[in-house]
């Protein structure tokens, strides 16, 4: 009788070789909900004042192309060995495109007025990208 009772106990205590994943799924779903709720809150705007910086000046071998965005949203273009001239968006893109095709290594900077609309400065950068400029720098005054 002792042998029969030993076999019954042995059968009852057989180990399972499965992992119970239900608690892990619950934790994953809770984390998913937390991230879905908090993600839209991370995209809030912050008021910033960009034009002043303590960055060091970049040494240039050639004089760069400077696109100036006025406070009223107009564009001016200062190219190498030429005076600054006021241009519209189409002329700006055409002139910069022609100059960059002949001199692909030339530096291009955008100088936006402090009171200029951010969208206008951004549109100037989009125009430069469409004109074939790969890298654009932003100009600022020193913080001193």
From TrEMBL:
<keyword id="KW-0131">Cell cycle</keyword>
<keyword id="KW-0997">Cell inner membrane</keyword>
<dbReference type="InterPro" id="IPR014168">
    <property type="entry name" value="Tol-Pal_TolR"/>
</dbReference>
<keyword id="KW-1133">Transmembrane helix</keyword>
<dbReference type="GO" id="GO:0051301">
    <property type="term" value="P:cell division"/>
</dbReference>
<feature type="transmembrane region" description="Helical">
    <location>
        <begin position="21"/>
        <end position="42"/>
    </location>
</feature>
<comment type="similarity">
    <text>Belongs to the ExbD/TolR family.</text>
</comment>
<comment type="subunit">
    <text>The Tol-Pal system is composed of five core proteins: the inner membrane proteins TolA, TolQ and TolR, the periplasmic protein TolB and the outer membrane protein Pal. They form a network linking the inner and outer membranes and the peptidoglycan layer.</text>
</comment>
<keyword id="KW-1003">Cell membrane</keyword>
<dbReference type="GO" id="GO:0005886">
    <property type="term" value="C:plasma membrane"/>
</dbReference>
<dbReference type="GO" id="GO:0022857">
    <property type="term" value="F:transmembrane transporter activity"/>
</dbReference>
<comment type="function">
    <text>Part of the Tol-Pal system, which plays a role in outer membrane invagination during cell division and is important for maintaining outer membrane integrity.</text>
</comment>
<dbReference type="GO" id="GO:0015031">
    <property type="term" value="P:protein transport"/>
</dbReference>
<dbReference type="Pfam" id="PF02472">
    <property type="entry name" value="ExbD"/>
</dbReference>
<keyword id="KW-0472">Membrane</keyword>
<dbReference type="InterPro" id="IPR003400">
    <property type="entry name" value="ExbD"/>
</dbReference>
<keyword id="KW-0132">Cell division</keyword>
<protein>
    <recommendedName>
        <fullName>Tol-Pal system protein TolR</fullName>
    </recommendedName>
</protein>
<keyword id="KW-0812">Transmembrane</keyword>
